[in-house]
Amino acid sequence: MMSPLALHAVSKSFGGKPAVSDVSFKIEPGEIVGFLGPNGAGKTTTLRMALGLIKPDSGSVALFGQTPGEEAFGRIGFLPEERGLYKKQTAREAIAHMARLNGIKKQKAFKLADDMLDRYGLGEAKRKKNKDMSKGMAQKVQLLAAIAHDPEFHILDEPFSGLDPVNQKILEDIVREIASRDRTIIFSTHVMEHAERLCDRIILMASGRKVFDGTTEAALAHAPRRVILASDMDGLTELAAPFASEIETRPNQELSLTLKPGAQAHDILERSVAQELRLTKYEPIRPTLHEAFVTLVGEDVRKDMDLKAEGFE
Amino acid sequence: MSILPKVNLRRTFLIARRDYIGYVKTWGFWISFLLPFIFGGFGFLMASADLDLTPTQQVAVLDETGLHADRLLDLYNENLEDKAQAILSTRSYFIQDRDKRAEFDKILRADGTKAAQKYLAENVPNVSVDYEPPEAEFKIVPAPADTLEELLPYLKGEALLSVDGNEVELGGVIIFKSGPTPSQPEAQYWSTNISKLDVPNLVNHYLRRLARITYLETEGLNVSELDRRVALAPEAELFNPIKTVSDDQGVNASDTVPFVVATVLAFMLWLTVFSGAYMLLTSMLEEKLNKLLEMMLASTRFSEIILGKLLGVAALTLSMMAPYILLGIAGVIGYIALGPDQDVVSGLVAAFNAKMIIFLIIYLVLGYILYGAFFIALGSLSSSMQDAQTLTTPILFVLMACAAVIPLGLTAPDSPLLRIATFIPFSAPFASIVRLPSDPPLWELLLSTAFLSILCLGTIAMAGRIFRYGVLSGAGAGVVISWFKRVVLRRNA
Q1: Would you state the pLDDT for residue A311?
Q2: Closest residue of A to B305, CA-based?
Q3: The complex's ipTM?
Q4: Is the separation of the CB atoms in A204 and A210 below 8 Å?
Q5: What's the pLDDT score for residue A155?
Q6: In chain A, what are the domain boundaries?
Q7: Residue A224 — φ and ψ, nearest 5°?
Q8: Would you state the pLDDT for residue A125?
Q9: For chain B, percent helix, then strand, then coil, each to nearest 5?
């Protein structure tokens, strides 16, 4: 099957300031890809280039194998970062209008709108004007408007931002439901937990550059591994020191160890048994994408990123 | 490669339809749409109710000289007769026979309303002689006392006087006292309503006339005879040497009506362009604030959004203007079918010729596109109404200047300014329309249309770039400067 999206060495500057530099990646059919990075990392600019809304200064973009444009109309569901609806339209009108723009006939579009609103718990809001809806409801209506025509490829820019935890969960369910129909999804976020829960693959951006592209497990492998240890006997620090690149003593006297490359948590456990040092706490910490990101980005890029965050997105 | 952008008609229609319906569902649209009917109905109700919104003021005259009260009353009645003549003179439009019309006008001027009514009844029985007499803004009544001191309580509202069985307030008192000569009396006007000037104006008129009459009479001239001769003085006849439709080349309503029609049409065109362009601005701004454009751009072309908006708002503007347009068309057709004044009828027929209709449509479309594209571009760069107002001020000045050109079509259709304005695309739609009755050379109209078309294409292309940039940027007035530096000057902003 044709790759829905392929970027090759894409760069874009605004007023001489680079927003995206030499970014390449390819999305395969049926994947759920998390497009991660902090504010100002170049995510929105990249997605806009992917859609053909702005042209890259260099490099190339292929959307369904072609230059982004009308051939992709109706095959894409795009939820932009900036949210909004026509205030005086009702929820069903808003969804049907977008569906019709994407080629669905009038009657079918309204039926789709009604069905989707019922399915996602917004049945009562069908004839409610958008201006009278809560932010969460309006955001869900806009997402439904973006996907009502059942596109092959979903591009969702920060779909979770501004939602409370309950609505974030509902949105996650919607994304899972889309994915269950073998649709391709790329969504950007700066909240790593969503990506951890939903994605097969993640692409990490920082300061306009791609810093990682791979499976979630591979990304997590870059995260420092940590163990929390505690003992009611002396000599815990000396016991753990050979395995740790960093040891932090917590106020409750527990040790937080960052393991050296190659060192394993169970080595510490074996050694404590051998030295008869009783452990009152042994807790290997599950690495997070956030930690992986911090490791992958590096100190210099993080500083640069802080400056850029004031810029483009 | 086509210079025109590709568009999908279905998507364009959907965008136009949404814009149209979005506005039609608002109260504002229906208020504007029904405004002529609301005003018409209100006017009809007011007329039916015969409400007196400006009650007639009662004015007394204290004439210490005994010379002026009656003469002032005569002048007052003459003024009322003049107003009545002005009202009755409109009957002239309903007299088909040109000679009878001229005779009626002459009798009305020379012999007054009663004689004119008699003439109508005897010679033009199908035209009504009845008319609503003019309402006097003040009425001269007998003074309830003989001195100012005694009249003061009436003037202050502490006492009422009886007029025709009704108790009413005394609005003012005119006092004539002896002056240096009988023809130069001292005149005073006492009233608590000092801003109401019609009474002192009448007194001043009386005093000036008295001075004139006195002088003429002392020179041995008969003032009444003078007035009669002035009333019977002939009027200048107008001729046009290039006129070919009449044997004597005499000028009448059939020659002047096309100029009036062209001026009205140019004004309507201006109003349509102005209101349409402004609606596009607000529509664009609403779209920008709704933040839906970016989402739409994943399934529609920029060109489809721009064209859809232009068409949607055009339909909306025409809908809002529909009552005026339909009433105008009905009025013109009605007058052409039933109108008694054949000069006006032939003038209307001449005014709405094929050339006028074709160029009116061309200029309506091009003018709307030109200004509409500007306003779309500026709307896409604005992030608030304040931004939009700041950015549109220069183009509004241009539109206002164009409006100032339109009256020249009536007062100076041969003005060089009007001719120059024909070739300036911004003013071309309005200047060309008002020049049409003067039959300007066709090449001038075609060249003007060509200039306008070229600027329209350029404006659409520019609006497309600005729109693309404005929609995806944070926008605001400052963005215009950075866009200009970056895109036009090719500098780093």
Answers
A1: 37
A2: A101
A3: 0.79
A4: yes
A5: 94
A6: 5-75+151-220, 224-285
A7: -65, 140
A8: 84
A9: 70, 5, 25
Tell me, yes or no, if A102 comes closer than 8 A to chain B by beta carbon: yes
Contact A15 B493 (CB under 8 A): yes
Give the span between the Cα atoms of A94 and B304, in whole angstroms: 19
Cβ-nearest to B301 among A15, A70, A87: A70
The percent helix, strand, coil of chain A (3-state, each to 5) is 40, 30, 35
Q: Can you give the pTM of this predicted structure?
A: 0.72
Q: Which two tokens stand for residue B111?
A: 């012999």
CA distance A69 to chain B (A): 8
Angle at B472 between CA B466 and CA B477, to 5 degrees: 60
Question: Phi first, then psi: what are they for B86, rounded to 5°?
Answer: -60, -40
- Nearest by CB to A102, from B292, B299, B493: name it: B299
Do residues B315 and B422 make contact, with C-beta atoms less than 8 angstroms apart? no
- CB atoms A86 and B493 under 8 Å: no
Integer-rounded Cα radius of gyration of chain A: 24
Task: Look at residue B475 in the predicted model and tell me its pLDDT.
Answer: 47
A80 contacts in B (CB within 8 Å)? 291, 294-295
Which CATH number is A5-75+151-220 given? 3.40.50.300
A183 and chain B in contact, CB less than 8 A: no
Check pLDDT > 90 for residue B259: no
- Percent residues over pLDDT 90 in chain A: 33
Q: Tell me how far apart the alpha carbons of residues B228 and B213 are, in angstroms, rounded to a whole number.
A: 14
Chain A residues closer than 8 Å to B14 by CB: 97, 100-101
Nearest chain B Cα distance for residue A86, angstroms: 6
Task: Give residue for tokens 């970016």.
Answer: B294
| pLDDT attached to residue B315 | 92
pLDDT at residue B282 tops 90 = no
Percent of chain B with pLDDT over 90: 20
Question: Which CATH code of 3.40.50, 3.30.70, 2.60.120, 3.10.350 fits the domain covering A224-285?
Answer: 3.30.70
Q: Are A277 and A231 in contact (CB under 8 A)?
A: yes
